[in-house]
Each structure stands twice: as structure tokens, then as C-alpha cells.
Design goal:
Subcellular location: Cytoplasm
Family: Belongs to the DsrE/TusD family.
Radius of gyration: 14 Å
Distance between the termini: 19 Å
CATH superfamily: DsrEFH-like
Strand content: 15-25%
Shape: globular
Structural class: alpha/beta
GO cellular component, one term: sulfurtransferase complex
Helix content: 25-40%
Largest sheet: 3 strands, parallel
Number of strands: 5
Number of domains: 1
Main location: cytoplasm
Order of helices and strands: EHEHEHHEHE
Strand order of the largest sheet: 2-1-5
CATH architecture: 3-Layer(aba) Sandwich
Number of helices: 5
CATH topology: Hypothetical Protein Ychn, Chain: A
Keywords: Cytoplasm, Transferase
CATH class: Alpha Beta
Length: 122
């Protein structure tokens, strides 16, 4: 069964951590799944978000999965997160999309919803 994890919760939310836990479990069981970061969930892809040394870093934990990490481009830009291409396009002086994350359009979410058997939103 394929699963789509739609992460809309901010990285500080316990729900965002539950999404990671489910992704790790699905990966360990070799079950098909995809993720999509949307709304406040896009903040996990902010390279400039500081996490104290004594706390787990959600961004780093997602990167360790070595899976595709699509992030809604509109939601990201609205929250001050940009890749190099969008920074240039929108005349921004810097970019801060974390390594391993990718800015994509909502069409990708629509395709993922149509091709999955189960959608779980966090």
C-alpha cells in the first residue's frame, strides 16, 4: 500500500515529529511512501533555523532518510524560504533551502494524491 505523508505542522509541533517517526517506520518495513511539505510544514526546510545542541534536529532527521523531500514553493516563499533559482527570480539577496529539500509546485501534490492509496496529514 502506498502512503502519502502530508506535513503541514510546524517543525516545533509534536505532529511534525510523528510524521518523521511514521516515515522512518515505513522505510524500515520497505513500504512505499512519499512526503510533501506544505503550509507551516515547509519551515523544516529552512537551513537557517537554529536548533540547540541538546535537541534533535528535525531537518537533519529528514535528510538522513535519503528520500525525495518536496516542499511547496509558494508556501516556502511566503515563509521566507527560497532556493537559489527563486532567489534570483524574485530578486532576493540570499537563499536558504536546506540540502536535500526541493521546491515544487502544488501540481506535484495533486499527482501524489491521485497515485496514493492512503493520505495521512500531520
Amino acid at each position: 500500500m502506498s502512503t502519502l505523508l502530508l506535513i503541514t505542522s510546524a517543525p516545533t509541533s509534536i505532529h511534525a515529529w510523528h510524521a518523521l517517526g511514521l516515515a522512518q517506520a515505513l522505510q524500515q518495513k520497505n513500504e512505499a511512501f512519499r512526503v510533501f511539505f506544505y503550509q507551516d510544514g515547509v519551515a523544516v526546510a529552512n537551513e537557517l533555523q537554529w536548533v540547540p545542541d541538546d535537541q534533535r534536529n528535525l531537518k537533519t532527521e529528514w535528510q538522513k532518510l535519503s528520500i525525495r523531500l518536496p516542499v511547496c514553493v509558494s508556501a516556502a516563499l511566503a515563509r521566507g524560504i527560497s532556493d537559489a533559482d527563486n532567489a534570483k527570480r524574485h530578486q532576493l539577496s540570499q537563499h536558504n533551502l536546506a540540502a536535500g529539500f526541493e521546491l515544487v509546485g502544488l501540481g506535484e501534490l495533486a499527482d501524489a494524491v491521485q497515485s496514493t492509496e492512503r493520505l495521512i496529514q500531520f
